[in-house]
Amino acid sequence: MLDRVQLYESGTDEFLLESEASMALKGRDFLSLHDYTPAEVEHLLKVASLLKAKQKAGQPHPLLAGKSLGMIFHKSSTRTRVSFEVAIWQLGGQGLFLNPADLQMGRGETIADTARILSRYLDGIMIRTYGHEIVLELAKYADVPVVNGLTDLSHPCQALADYFTIWEKKGHLAGIKVAFIGDGNNMAHALMYGAAKVGARIAVASPPGYESSPEVLRLAREDSFATRAQIEVTNDPAEAVAGADVVYTDVWASMGQESEHAERVKAFQGFQVNSALMSEARKDALVLHCLPAHYGEEITEEVAYGPNSAIFDQAENRLHVQKAILAMLL
Ligand code: CP
Ligand code: NVA
User: Fold this and answer.
1) Predicted local confidence at residue 13, as pLDDT
2) Which atom of ligand 1 is nearest to the CA of 291?
3) Of residues 183, 290, 314, 322, which has the active-site annotation?
4) Which residue's C-alpha comes closest to atom 2 of ligand 1?
5) Same domain assignment for residues 14 and 97
6) pLDDT tens column, 4-45
7) How far is the centre of ligand 1, averaged over its atoms, from the C-alpha of 292 (Å)?
8) How far, in Å, CA of 160 to CA of 322, rounded?
9) Which residues line ligand 2 (CB under 6 A)?
């Protein structure tokens, strides 16, 4: 993967933005990293790096002037909502926050018709919802790109921002070991798909009964052959963090699972990212968390705010990576 410094110095802006690789992404949906080739993922990371550099240097980059992005949220959000809204605005376009309770969708208008109608006004649709099939249905009937802003199955925008953060901090992605500690949830799935595309090694440690989807594991492993990535699952957090370059965790009860919270707290004992567990990882292991965090549950404040933590850079990178996604797709 091209070094970031090399990228800035090579004067490849126009090449990057108008290259064949960019053209091949126009009009595509962004539903899962599984749908993208390793080269396409690498291209999105490079574009994100370029757009981040431009933004930091105060150089305008209105690649989506006059375009509009609709954003549907069936679940709460701080990072996704604000970063997408700012992303489209910084690219010269405008974002529309669409509360499903105020849409006719909330009164039973079908997803298919919603997709058909929104496609007549908008240049792209971002949706955060429960069932992944809702996003698939929306994408099927929409004529404009649909971006998955999180489903129960996957959170690809977050995972792409996470690999971007690791790339920035560690300088490369191939062979990097990521330990994911906790629920085999949407985050674990997206990170497994991502690892397979960037050639990383991921070990997901979950308590018995809370493992990742076997189908996602199968597909990620299938993808991993092309990049020599390694996708491992275990019930032992210490095994996962052994030699890890990155230790990642997420909440024990995701949105929609609030009623299972007490039972999950019991099941996840021993799966907290704390200093004892961190002492089993590499000394310079990066700590990541997609946030929001439940301090004292999946992670301690000491680790989350400690010297190895990059959780706020990681959150910032949602903006830069999503700008790359929007700039390429819309
Ligand atoms: N990480 C993440 O997606 O955060 P929000 O739920 O605040 O969007
Ligand atoms: N797994 C969490 C991620 C939040 C960004 C959830 O789905 O609630």
Assistant:
1) 64
2) 1
3) 290
4) 79
5) yes
6) 434 444 445 666 777 888 889 999 999 999 999 999 999 999
7) 7
8) 9
9) 150, 155, 185-187, 250-251, 254-255, 290
Shortest-distance Cα residue to atom 6 of ligand 1: 77
Residue 135 belongs to a domain with what CATH number?
Answer: 3.40.50.1370
Q: Residues near ligand 1 with C-beta < 6 Å?
A: 77-80, 150, 158, 290-291
Burial (CB < 10 A; 0-12, 13-18, 19+), residue 204, is: buried
Residues 12 and 110 in one domain: yes
What is the pLDDT, as a whole number, of residue 248? 99
- Residues (pLDDT < 50) of the chain are 1-11
Q: Whole-angstrom Cα distance, residue 218 to residue 196?
A: 11
Same domain flag for 81 and 148: yes
Residues 293 and 168 in one domain: yes
CA distance 311 to 286: 9
Quick one: tokens of 218? Answer: 């199968």
User: Three-state DSSP class for 239?
Assistant: helix
Based on the residue annotation, tell me whether 152 is a catalytic residue of this protein: no
Question: DSSP letters of 81-104?
Answer: HHHHHHHHHHTT-EEEEE-TTTSG
157 catalytically annotated: no
pTM of the predicted model over 0.85 = yes
How far apart are the CA of 255 and the centre of ligand 2, in A? 6
In this predicted structure, what is the pLDDT of residue 319? 98
Collect contacts of 5-10 with beta carbons under 8 A, ≥24 apart: 7/46, 7/49, 7/50, 8/49, 8/50, 8/53
For residues 118 and 172, state if they share a domain. Answer: no
Q: Which ligand is nearest to the CA of 187?
A: 2
What total of structural domains would you count in the chain? 2
